[in-house]
Write a structure and sequence with these properties.
alpha+beta, three-stranded antiparallel beta sheet, 35% helix, globular
Length: 147
């Protein structure tokens, strides 16, 4: 409650805040970019799912890259070139950047994964990586948000 002083002191103003789910639904930001619980659940699901295997959690984990190379039937050097920052579903458009919390680490940056619905790190990847990214235009981002 906000109380006003002076001649208007008899008036009370009540402010009602929207829950995060409503805020995200009303805005152009995906829910996972505004709600840490939703983002964490989606990210953890992507880490654990055998068909996704988002990672590596520790960027220096060479065993992840070995497994990925084996899965894709390629070498480690080639597998390491297929990261979120060049995936077709990785959104770093100007409108999506406004949804992000900002720079969080020195070894990469956050974008939004439209495939798995969470904020992902540019230097990671997953089994569902797709050539053709990142998304850098607002109109392309808007198209993905409608899917």
């Amino acid at each position: 409650m906000l109380r006003l002083g002076g001649a208007m002191s008899q008036y009370k103003i009540f402010l009602k805040l929207k829950p995060l789910e409503k805020l995200a639904a009303d805005s152009s930001c995906p829910l996972a970019t505004q709600n840490l619980e939703v983002n964490t659940k989606n990210r953890n699901r992507a880490i654990k799912a055998n068909h996704i295997k988002y990672g590596p959690i520790n960027l220096s984990d060479n065993s992840y890259w070995l497994d990925l190379a084996k899965h894709w039937k390629t070498d480690v050097a080639s597998a390491k070139k297929s990261k979120c920052d060049n995936c077709a579903a990785f959104d770093v458009s100007p409108s999506m950047k406004r949804c992000m919390p900002g720079m969080v680490q020195n070894d990469g940056y956050l974008g939004y994964c439209h495939m798995h619905k969470f904020k992902c790190h540019s230097e990671r990847t997953c089994y569902t990586w797709a050539k053709g990214g990142p998304i850098t235009k607002d109109r392309v981002s808007a198209t993905w948000l409608k899917k």
